[in-house]
């Protein structure tokens, strides 16, 4: 009798003990050579209670989530599959530690468990010495929860491979250096939503979200990306749990908005859809974000068909071969042990308890929302492939004697590029994956409801987007491309619907209009403002390239002439051209040519100063040199004999340099006045073309500009006058024809430019300005300097003192005869 009782007691004790260990470890824990962390939402906190003191949460006390439990099973399946593989991690086993993650802010004990080493945490430990409990982890579900815990994980470069956090903020590698995700970011999702809206030509939409990082991030990106698309965001609201959903939907219905984007987590999306059914909201198009696009309960709601057409965006539904078999096997094992004993341990670790988990059937798990199945599967395989690289595995074995640090896995993850179930897994510099979205249509007429794939969007190997319109069945058997009711007033030219902002609600009054901003334009009768195209003379335009190439060639030619004259400085040709003054003339022409480059590119204050002021000053100094050089030749041949005293004073006091210096100072003062009275600065012309803003430079104060132009033209006139007076001088000193030709070209060029400036209103007037400056310089160099350079190089016999003396004697004899 006693022996029988002892045997019964031992049997019950052993059965209870081993069942507890088995149930707990098979679901939440698994031993292995390398441990992975997992965070899944097995329970959902509907209404968080604010606390005055820190407190950890016990998730099992809240609402059970079948979807979260299915996600947990996908991780377990992936780990088992990898452990059974003979090629990925041969002779290495992966283990895991999984926690229920049901709150945004009360789960730090589980995070501390992951990053601890033998139960303690050393925040300032060097990376090479730091060995946390896990080498990497995946989860949690949701952007807000991920952003909350990410700093603790990423500060020690532990890879956080997320399957369900899409906030674009997490792409910032400065803030989240070890964050990697297998789900596309909100940026990609919003791009997809906008593709759908534009595909059907809708432009009057509402955007509903929840009060969390996920929705706030999505709305911010949506605002940014619709700015130049013609899409009008007619209403937006971030809804809380206790928000008045009925009132929100009635406002949308009153504004005749037929397209509603619901960018919210499942809890809020359910509230919105149920409120639409309850308030008899009919005939709308609902665009569902990936968080609830494949929700299994909502399509079964009574009256769901009345609300209209639901189009969802989800990750391309990729099957997981062997997953169903794994679940059936796991359920049989669970039913044979855990369910029969009705035992769950609540003593080992916080949030590793799930009373309802053993009660689920295999069919319930398999038929749950599969939206995140592949992203979880890919997250585990990402960690495994990175570990494969770190351990230098081959087909037979891995080097298990190596010490694996988390940051080593992170380094390898950045380089990964591997196929997985027909999908290529790779990451960009921000740790974001390639995009493979599916557009699904809710078919609520069948039982059970179906999710029919009607479109795709991929970014690898190239960007493609397509929707099969023939597969779409709209509500009321019609299209929803209309966006306004007949009672809405049309908006006059250049106006759009007026935006009125509330605290958390944005709505539009369809009966009032407002002017478009200066940077926008609108067609007659349009309800939207479009962004104007900003135009200016860009560097890469063919016209710009030609002009800049011409300027470059001119600078090279001027430098070559400068060097040629310097080498032949003591020859008669150089002295007759002006001697040392030639180098000042050539320098001024080089500086004038350089100013041409500032006509190209987006105008700035520096560009505006350098393009006109520099040319005006240096070209005027050049003209003063030309004028005094022409005068000096006439003075030598015609005035020296008649006015010997004046000639003597001119030579004694370097009259030519005084002349150049005087006009240079006068002109410099004029330029300073030009820059200070009204500085040339960038300007934008938004009046000439309704769809363009032309960026250019203001010319500055008209009076000071007129003084600048007058000085230049006065010196040009003096050049013409003196060259005409010396038209009968010896051939070697007679520059009348060349100077006259160059100055006529100079004056004609600027007359053409000022005429074009008054008539032509486009960015190309700046091109005309640049070409005018170049033609002025080209005319002078080819009529004055090139002939002299030709004599120096190809006719050296004419570049001798004897030849010049002969010319002077012939001229003297001619004069004496007359």
From TrEMBL:
Keywords: Cell membrane, G-protein coupled receptor, Glycoprotein, Membrane, Receptor, Signal, Transducer, Transmembrane, Transmembrane helix. It is found in: Cell membrane. GO terms for cellular component: plasma membrane. The chain crosses the membrane at residues 545-569, 581-601, 613-637, 657-677, 705-726, 738-760, 766-786. It is a multi-pass membrane protein. Its main location: membrane. Residues 1-23 form the signal peptide. SUPFAM superfamilies: Periplasmic binding protein-like I (SSF53822). The keyword Protease does not apply. Coiled coil: none annotated. Residues 543-808 form the G-protein coupled receptors family 3 profile domain. GO terms for molecular function: G protein-coupled receptor activity. This is Taste receptor type 1 member 1-like. It comes from Cyprinus carpio (Common carp).
């Amino acid at each position: 009798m006693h022996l029988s009782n002892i045997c019964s007691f031992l049997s019950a004790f052993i059965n209870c003990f081993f069942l507890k260990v088995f149930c707990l470890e098979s679901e939440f824990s698994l031993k292995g050579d390398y441990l992975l962390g997992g965070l899944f939402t097995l329970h959902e906190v509907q209404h968080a209670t604010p606390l005055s003191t820190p407190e950890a949460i016990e998730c099992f006390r809240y609402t059970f989530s079948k979807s979260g439990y299915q996600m947990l099973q996908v991780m377990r399946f992936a780990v088992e599959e990898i452990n059974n593989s003979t090629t990925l991690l041969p002779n290495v086993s992966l283990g895991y530690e999984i926690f229920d993650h049901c709150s945004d802010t009360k789960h730090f004990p589980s995070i501390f468990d992951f990053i601890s080493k033998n139960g303690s945490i050393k925040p300032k430990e060097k990376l090479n010495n730091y060995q946390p409990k896990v080498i990497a982890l995946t989860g949690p579900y949701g952007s807000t929860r991920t952003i909350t815990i990410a700093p603790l994980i990423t500060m020690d470069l532990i890879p956080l491979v997320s399957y369900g956090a899409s906030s674009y903020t997490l792409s910032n590698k400065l803030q989240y250096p070890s964050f990697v995700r297998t789900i596309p970011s909100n940026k990609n999702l919003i791009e997809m939503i906008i593709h759908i809206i534009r595909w059907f030509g809708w432009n009057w939409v509402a955007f509903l979200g929840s009060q969390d990082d996920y929705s706030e991030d999505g709305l911010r990106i949506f605002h940014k990306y619709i700015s130049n698309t013609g899409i009008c965001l007619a209403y937006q609201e971030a809804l809380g749990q206790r928000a008045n959903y009925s009132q929100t939907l009635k406002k949308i219905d009153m504004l005749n908005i037929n397209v509603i984007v619901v960018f919210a987590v499942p809890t809020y999306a359910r509230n919105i859809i149920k409120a639409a059914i309850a308030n008899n909201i009919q005939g709308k198009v609902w665009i569902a974000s990936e968080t609830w696009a494949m929700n299994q309960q909502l399509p079964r709601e009574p009256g769901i068909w009345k609300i209209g057409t639901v189009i969802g965006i989800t990750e391309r539904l990729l099957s997981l071969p062997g997953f169903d078999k794994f679940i059936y096997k796991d359920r049989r094992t669970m039913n044979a042990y855990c369910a029969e004993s009705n035992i769950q341990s609540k003593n080992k670790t916080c949030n590793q308890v799930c009373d309802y988990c053993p009660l689920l059937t295999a069919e319930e798990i398999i038929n749950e929302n599969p939206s995140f199945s592949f992203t979880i599967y890919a997250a585990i395989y990402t960690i495994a492939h990175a570990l494969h690289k770190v351990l230098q595995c081959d087909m037979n074995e891995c080097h298990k004697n190596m010490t694996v640090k988390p940051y080593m896995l992170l380094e390898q993850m950045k380089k990964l590029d591997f196929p997985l179930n027909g999908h290529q897994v790779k990451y960009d510099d921000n740790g974001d994956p390639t995009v493979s979205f599916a557009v699904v249509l809710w078919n609520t007429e069948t039982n059970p409801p179906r999710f029919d794939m009607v479109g795709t969007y991929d970014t690898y190997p190239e960007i493609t987007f397509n929707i099969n319109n023939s597969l779409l069945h709209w509500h009321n058997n019609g299209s929803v491309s209309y966006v306004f009711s007949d009672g809405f007033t049309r908006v006059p030219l250049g106006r759009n619907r007026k935006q009125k902002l509330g605290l958390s609600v944005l709505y539009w009054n369809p009966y009032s209009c407002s002017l478009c901003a200066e940077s926008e334009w609108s067609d007659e009768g349009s309800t939207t403002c479009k962004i104007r195209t900003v135009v200016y003379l860009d560097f890469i335009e063919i016209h710009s390239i030609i002009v800049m190439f011409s300027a470059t060639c001119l600078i090279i030619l001027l430098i070559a002439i400068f060097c040629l004259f310097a080498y032949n400085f003591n020859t008669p040709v150089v002295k007759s051209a002006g001697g040392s003054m030639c180098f000042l003339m050539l320098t001024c022409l080089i500086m004038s040519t350089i100013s041409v480059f500032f006509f190209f590119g987006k105008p700035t204050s520096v560009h505006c100063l350098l393009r006109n002021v520099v040319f005006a000053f240096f070209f005027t100094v050049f003209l003063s040199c030309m004028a005094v050089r022409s005068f000096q030749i006439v003075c030598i041949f015609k005035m020296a004999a008649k006015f010997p005293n004046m000639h003597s004073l001119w030579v004694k006091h370097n009259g030519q340099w005084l002349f150049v210096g005087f006009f240079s100072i006068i002109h410099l003062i004029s330029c300073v006045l030009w820059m200070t009275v009204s500085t040339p600065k960038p300007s934008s012309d938004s009046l000439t073309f309704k769809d363009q803003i032309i960026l250019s430079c203001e010319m500055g104060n008209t009076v000071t500009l007129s003084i600048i132009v007058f000085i230049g033209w006065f010196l040009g006139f003096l050049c013409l006058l003196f060259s005409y007076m010396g038209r009968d001088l010896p051939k070697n000193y007679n520059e009348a024809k060349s100077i006259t030709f160059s100055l006529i070209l100079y004056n004609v060029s600027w007359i053409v430019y000022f005429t074009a400036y008054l008539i032509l209103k486009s960015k190309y007037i700046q091109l005309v300005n640049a070409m005018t400056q170049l033609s002025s310089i080209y005319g002078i160099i080819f009529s004055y300097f090139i002939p002299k350079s030709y004599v120096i190089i190809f006719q050296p016999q004419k570049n001798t003192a004897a030849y010049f003396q002969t010319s002077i004697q012939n001229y003297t004899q001619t004069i004496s005869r007359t």
